[in-house]
Recover the amino acids of this structure.
């Protein structure tokens, strides 16, 4: 369903107060549909006989736009003179509103750019890493040491899993397998913490099977 844009404002001026819209010479129009396709505001439709173009929604036309006239191969489309717009600009003193709208537009664009830059920066951060470790955990109190390593740091361990062959085997020092994710609580790099974690794993004679970034 076509949109009715006639109740919109043009820089504070009611659209219906501005007589800017196309006029079609029905005698010369060949119904090529170029104006229909070129207009993004649904100004044009075909007549009842589907023969020539008609201006169905004149006040949908963007003030100042004349693209349809430019592309018409038989010059069937005409517009009022540009002094029509200049007169509206002068009578309604729109430039104060225009400056305000331009300032708001620039601020919006700057915010969008800043947000995009921040999101791009965050996307590059390594804020979550998956770690897989194998070895004898029980006697070495590895989990207690790992918990102490996290103290006063903006990181945490999540999705922790531990696999051991049997309970007795674990208590007797049989090797097991452990996986967990190191995550940042404040969108900070985990790289430095990972370096400390690797040292802890090595000092406890465990094997770092794998570490990988989680996007």
């Amino acid at each position: 369903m076509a949109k009715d844009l006639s109740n919109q404002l043009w820089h504070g001026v009611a659209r219906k107060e501005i007589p800017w819209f196309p006029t079609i010479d029905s005698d010369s129009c060949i119904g090529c549909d170029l104006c229909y396709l070129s207009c993004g505001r649904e100004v044009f439709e075909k007549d009842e006989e589907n023969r020539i173009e008609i201006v169905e929604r004149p006040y949908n036309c963007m003030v100042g736009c004349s693209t349809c006239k430019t592309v018409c191969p038989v010059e069937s489309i005409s517009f009022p003179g540009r002094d029509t717009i200049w007169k509206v600009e002068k009578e309604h003193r729109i430039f104060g509103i225009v400056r305000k709208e331009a300032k708001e537009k620039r601020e919006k664009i700057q915010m969008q750019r800043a947000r995009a830059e921040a999101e791009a920066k965050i996307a590059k951060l390594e804020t979550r890493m998956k770690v897989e470790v194998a070895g004898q955990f029980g006697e070495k109190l590895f989990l207690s040491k790992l918990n102490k390593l996290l103290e006063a740091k903006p990181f945490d361990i999540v999705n922790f899993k531990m696999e051991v062959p049997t309970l007795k085997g674990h208590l007797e020092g049989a090797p097991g397998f452990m996986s967990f994710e190191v995550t940042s609580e404040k969108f900070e790099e985990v790289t430095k913490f990972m370096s400390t974690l690797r040292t802890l794993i090595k000092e406890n004679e465990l094997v770092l099977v794998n570490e990988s970034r989680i996007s």
Notes: The domain at 128-213 is CATH 3.30.70.2690 (Alpha-Beta Plaits).
